[in-house]
Amino acid sequence: MKIDKYVEENKCLINIKSISECIDLLVEFSRSDGGYVFRGVSDENHGLKSSLDRYYPNIKSHREAFLFQEFQRQINHYLPLESIPKSMFEIFSLMQHYGVPTRLLDFTYSPFIALYFAARRMNKNCDCAIWVLYPSNLLFCTRANLVKQGFPHEIKTDIYY
Fold first, then answer.
1. What is the pLDDT of residues 50-62, one digit of tens each?
2. Which of 2, 42, 78, 156 would give a disulfide with 121, using CB separation of 3.0 to 4.6 Å?
3. How buried is residue 40: exposed, middle or buried, by Cβ count under 10 Å (0-12/13-18/19+)?
């Protein structure tokens, strides 16, 4: 199941009118210990799109390949040889950390860190947003959809975060 479809089917929009209302809600989430993950964005219109999707929507695969190749080519200037990541995912994570557009989305277990990222580049012309997802539910819906579509491989039941 694509995350866009999941979000659309399970969306619950809460509009906050004051900073105290926002803090109260975030405190409630932080006390719940319910396994939620949070993502703060400075423009609510970004939705759950990666920086690569936002900056290069039509040429993202070519741009991603170029950025990946350039990052890999120059990484040895900034990291010792033994610290250079080996896997593609580790390299993408490092690229994301340094602000290079990637296909990755950052999430946090802290609603307050999400608030920081939502507010740090806030613009008076648009609202910021904090996305709240429940990964176990997303995983359950994805598995159910795969089974319904006759996915030919065994679906493991272990969940690792």
1. 888 888 888 778 8
2. 42
3. buried
Look up tokens 């400075």; give the residue: 42
- For 57-106, what is each residue's pLDDT tens digit? 887 788 888 999 999 999 988 888 888 888 888 999 999 988 899 989 89
User: What is the number of helices (H) and of strands (E) in the chain?
Assistant: 7, 2
- Which residues does residue 108 pair with via DSSP β-bridges, in sequence order? 38
Considering only the C-alpha atoms of the chain, give the largest distance between any 2 of them, rounded to a whole number of Å: 50
- SS3 for 38? strand
Q: How far is CA 12 from CA 2, 8, 43, 130, 155, in A?
A: 18, 9, 18, 12, 29
Encoded tokens for 58? 């039509």
Q: For residue 78, give both structure tokens.
A: 């900034």
Residue indicated by tokens 């610290």: 83
